[in-house]
Amino acid sequence: MADTIFSKIISREIPANILFEDDQALAFADVNPQAPTHFLVIPKKPIPKLSDATREDQALLGHLLLVANNVAAEQGLTDFRLNVNNGAGASQTVFHLHIHVLGGRPFSWPPG
């Protein structure tokens, strides 16, 4: 997998406002927030997009959701939205799996 901005954040080549880190995942503030609270949760394992995940990634994917929930709570969110874009046609621009966690404002449905 080619280097991405996220792999460079993991390796500390690019600075980020890191909210959480363990051996499997990293959570950091989005540099272009779309809500008062907007952060990303990424695996340290390079998975380009959700559809590239395999059965061996099952525990990691669950871990990412728990990290998202825990960091949301630490950020004071009780209501929040999770978003995962899969592929360019779904507006994925960085090809390293990531979960957007957005909160702090009402959201409408369906999303844009």
UniProtKB/TrEMBL annotation:
A motif (Histidine triad motif) lies at residues 96-100. One of its GO terms (molecular function) is catalytic activity. Residues 5-112 form the HIT domain. It holds the Pfam family HIT. The active site is at H98 (tele-amp-histidine intermediate). CDD domains: PKCI_related. Coiled coil: none annotated. It comes from Isoalcanivorax pacificus W11-5. This is HIT family protein. Gene3D superfamilies: HIT-like (3.30.428.10).
